[in-house]
Design a protein that fits this description.
This protein is mainly α. The chain has helices at residues 12-28, 33-64.
Length: 89
């Protein structure tokens, strides 16, 4: 009886890389149905794992930016669009 592979200790970056590989293989559509289903199942596990890692990182960041009175000073992430973005002149 084989046990389902675990992603518990897989680093986020490695899980994301593997997920990208699986998506690429699935998009090619060259595999058998059974192989495609196995890759899809692995991809779902990896996507959940990555989501959990991101959620945990978000909770850690929010804990780090808590204000003195126990509230949170959560600021929405706004990516920079260029080298001069965000600069006030």
């Amino acid at each position: 009886m084989s046990k389902e592979p675990t992603t518990k200790d897989v680093p986020f970056e490695a899980a994301l890389d593997r997920l990208e590989q699986l998506v690429k293989k699935l998009e090619e559509g060259d595999g058998s149905l059974d192989d495609s289903l196995r890759m899809f199942e692995e991809g779902v596990r990896l996507a959940r794992h990555c989501g959990e890692k991101l959620d945990a990182a978000e909770r850690r960041i929010e804990a780090l930016v808590r204000t003195e009175n126990g509230g949170s000073n959560v600021v929405p992430f706004e990516p920079e669009e260029g080298p001069d973005s965000g600069r006030k002149e």
